[in-house]
Amino acid sequence: MGHRTLEQLRTMVDEVNGQLLKLISDRAALVKEMGEVKERQGVPKFDPAREKEMLDVLVAANPGPFDAAAIRHIFKEIFKVSMELQGQSHRKQLLVSRKKQAEDTVIEIKGVQIGGNRSFMVAGPCSVESREQLREVGRALKEEGVPMLRGGAFKPRTSPYDFQGLGVKGLKLMREVADEFGLLAVSEIVDPATIGIAADYLDVIQIGARNMQNFELLKAAGESKVPVLLKRGLAATMEEWLHAAEYVVSRGNTQVILVERGIRSYEKWTRNTLDISAVPLIKQESHLPVLVDVSHATGRKDILLPCAKAALAAGADGVMVEVHPNPPTALSDADQQIDIPQFRKLYREIRDSGLFKL
Ligand code: PEP
Ligand code: MN
């Protein structure tokens, strides 16, 4: 026994490795099947009591030479990767996932395409303030060939003393001005009860960053036939954002557009931190169209062009920007809105950058 050569011992270890590999693969297959059973039964994937029980049994049966801590460590790692396996097979089943639908979702509204082989632009004021304000922006959009007008009627403001928006009157103005200039209209809805009337006035319902996980609102939007523009939450992970989209899609409304609008970070030079890596990641993971709102992402006017170019280069399907005829007088987001000449220049530079698919 003591005379086995190193080579022989290595060969034997290789064999044991092979057996271990087969055993952990067999175990993985069982774990995956268990994940499906748990899914069907609505049982949580992670069961700490069961995990403790398995570890106790293993430690009790441990013949050595590993000590109990080593056995726990090795098996905890096996349990951890097994959990990931169950999590991944769960993710595969999301309707918004590429694993469920490989090809890009292309949304078409009144002949305008969002996603696919064409880049898209949406612009307009932060808030709808008046007919004249909106008409000035609408006219510029029409002249530049930008197809969608944005404008908030229900404004989720940090302070209750700030302008809260014109409400339904604002939605009516959005429809009126969009129709006058042959544009599409998008506006934020903050209350599930308003989704119904929004359909009368809007081509796209926006769900804002602050409401990304307002599940009742997401469910109501999912019941609607109106396409939904879903902003990423202020501190939402990709996983949370995708699941928010899943709320809408799983209720039957498959027309969802995702919008990266920056996330909270410690940096103060920008209002939010534009998470550019979110763009290729979400495009990789999901078939839904993705836009980047450069105005809310930066909170500034001076770096909109490079950020828009970066967004398109990273694979975004389009860009959102805030435009106001007289930004210093704006009732919300006065600092970040560009005026109409600035908008014309910005849009032309984006369009002619070679990154904007015409
Ligand atoms: C908006 O687009 O009007 C808005 C409020 O943006 P966000 O929800 O991204 O803050
Ligand atoms: Mn705004």
Give an account of the 3D structure.
- With 358 residues, the chain is α/β, with parallel strands linked by helices.
- It has two domains: 15-91, Chorismate Mutase Domain, subunit A; 107-351, TIM Barrel (Alpha-Beta Barrel).
- 46% of the residues lie in helices and 11% in strands.
- It starts with 5 loop residues before the first helix and ends in a 7-residue tail after the last helix.
- The structure holds phosphoenolpyruvate and manganese (II) ion.
- The site of manganese (II) ion has 5 residues, from loops.
Measure the end-to-end span.
Answer: 76 Å
- What is the CATH topology descriptor of the largest domain? TIM Barrel
| Helix amount | 40-55%
> Quick check: average pLDDT?
96
Bound molecules: phosphoenolpyruvate, manganese (II) ion
What string gives the helices and strands in order? HHHEEEHEHEHEHEHEHEHHEH
Question: What's the level 1 CATH class of the largest domain?
Answer: Alpha Beta
Provide the CATH architecture of the largest domain: Alpha-Beta Barrel
Shape: elongated
Query: What's the main sheet like?
Result: 8 strands, parallel, barrel
Q: Which structural category fits the helices and strands? A: alpha/beta
Hey, roughly how much beta strand do the residues contain?
5-15%
Q: Strand order across the biggest sheet? A: 3-4-5-6-7-8-9-10
What is the overall number of helices? 12
In short:
The protein is an alpha/beta fold. Helix content is 46%, strand content 11%. The structure holds phosphoenolpyruvate and manganese (II) ion.
